[in-house]
Write a structure and sequence with these properties.
The chain is 39% helix and 17% strand. The chain is built from nine helices and eight strands. Strands 1-2-3-4-5-6-7-8 form an eight-stranded parallel β-barrel, surrounded by five helices.
Length: 211
């Protein structure tokens, strides 16, 4: 791997919602959230729809000072749209043009599930590392055992010097315990989008992350 690291984040991570369309990205930005991930699944959309969503999410982020909007998986579209950053899984390291992303100045977040994957991710010198699933999650089938808080604390040390995002089954109620493990950000999926009052949930998440 090259010795040039990916660009550093421009702000703290903190509360980090993962959402399924650009409308949610815009909504969260309006509510004061500054780190957001668009995770849109190819199986549910046409290529044209995905491209449109990625462009809209990137543009929404560009209009808000301090916004850090990451695009999950669709790195070619993110690159073409001039995205702030992309989030990739371990399997994407085998297929994505990592050097093109690095040269373009995009930030890179990488998913990790084991110490071995943490070590592999270190070699890429990403902008941040995600560790998960912290708790069991029903949103996607995971071939990994939940990390749990005790291991998260240890693995967060292994991730240094990169910022760490915890993800997987994290509710607002669980956020304080996760933050106490020394992570820099907490990613949530259903905690906002499936909340009875998403705006109040987002504001509560921001308050928790601010300590």
């Amino acid at each position: 791997m090259t010795s040039t690291p990916f660009a550093s984040l421009t702000g703290t991570i903190g509360f980090y919602p993962v959402v399924h369309d650009a409308a949610w990205v815009q909504r969260l930005l309006d509510w004061g959230v500054r780190t957001i991930q668009l995770r849109i699944k190819a199986a549910d959309h046409t290529p044209a729809e995905i491209e449109r969503e990625v462009k809209a999410a990137v543009e929404a982020g560009k209009r808000v000072p301090g916004a850090q909007v990451f695009i999950n998986d669709h790195w070619q579209l993110a690159l073409a749209a001039g995205a702030y950053g992309v989030h990739l899984g371990q399997e994407d390291l085998d297929t994505a043009d990592i050097e093109a992303l690095r040269r373009a100045g995009l930030r890179l977040g990488l998913s990790t599930h084991t110490p071995a994957e943490l070590a592999r991710a270190h070699a890429v010198q990403p902008s941040y590392l995600a560790i998960g699933p912290i708790y069991p999650t029903t949103l996607k089938v995971m071939p990994y055992e939940p990390v749990g808080l005790a291991q998260l604390k240890d693995w967060a040390l292994l991730a240094a010097p990169y910022p760490v995002v915890a993800i997987g089954g994290i509710s607002l109620e669980r956020m304080p315990g996760v933050l106490a493990c020394g992570v820099d950000g907490v990613a949530v999926v259903s905690a906002v989008t499936l909340a009875a009052d998403p705006q109040q949930a987002a504001l509560a998440g921001l308050r928790l992350a601010a300590g």
